Amino acid sequence: MESGGVSILSIPWRGSRCTAAVGTATTSTAPAVTRHVGGVHGQGGPDADSTGNHVVVTVSGLPSSENPLGIWYVDAGLGDALHEALPLVAGVYEQPPFRLVLEEIDGGGHDWHLAHDPTGGFVGMRWSAAAAEMHDFTAKHEWLSTSPDSGFVRVPMAEKRDATGVDVIRGLILARIGEGAVSDEPLTHRDEWFACLAEVFGLRFDAAAPEALDRLWDSALAAHRAWENTRQP
């Protein structure tokens, strides 16, 4: 999307969750950028536990023919959902291979909800229109980064969105959703797994200590073995 010579693009963040990555993207002085407290949720819908697990970003002051009010919903860390910014206007938006529904809650602009496509990686995400600061996310960020109960701690995961689909690796399994869809066999060899992270997702660990890479691989392999055990008859 372009307006007045300014472009809003999807941003390929590397090696970070949304609560860490998006904070660094919101320091520009023009156009106006605002953070909001969001919550990615599952089938049960938005709740207190999910609130604060996602940093939502809106950008204002960029009117266009499709969005005269000039307010845009921009997301740099929502996994496989957005590929491009959306007008902050309720409606249905096609971003292949997904169909996204943006809803204004209560019609007063106080809360918004994004319903993901049923084939996507999560159900939906709700956020408050009120402006937020990064300290509003500190407690949830710490829990997501360190708690043994956090999915980000239990299973390593990376996603790369493009115009026709998404590449995703969960644990040791690489898959493609959308154009060229495929689900590969587990990458059970260490060198093969790290090569995939580098070549597909641009994740390289040149500055990481060898023991840190050992822990990462051991964790990924253990999570995969545990998952395999749950599938045994």
Contiguous uncertain segments of 5+ residues = 1-16, 19-29
Q: State the share of residues found in helices, binned by percent.
A: 10-25%
Mean pLDDT: 87
DSSP summary, beta strand count? 14
The first-level CATH class name of the largest domain: Mainly Beta
Specify the structural class.
alpha+beta
Rg is 18 Å
Strand content: 25-35%
Task: Please give the CATH architecture of the largest domain.
Answer: Beta Barrel
Order of helices and strands: EEHEEEEEEEEHHEEEEHH
Record the strand order, biggest sheet.
6-5-4-3-10-9-8-7
Number of helices: 5
How far is the N terminus from the C terminus? 50 Å
For the record, the count of structural domains works out to 2
- Main beta-sheet annotation: 8 strands, antiparallel
Classified in CATH, the superfamily of the largest domain is Cysteine proteinases
**CATH topology of the largest domain, what is it called?**
Lipocalin
Shape: globular
Q: Mind explaining what this structure looks like?
A:
The structure is a single chain. The chain is globular. Helix content is 21%, strand content 29%. A hairpin with a 2-residue loop joins strand 7 and strand 8. The protein has two domains: 140 residues, Cysteine proteinases (Lipocalin); 76 residues, Arylsulfatase, C-terminal domain (2-Layer Sandwich), CATH 3.30.1120. It has five helices and 14 strands. With 233 residues, it is α+β, with helices and mostly antiparallel strands.
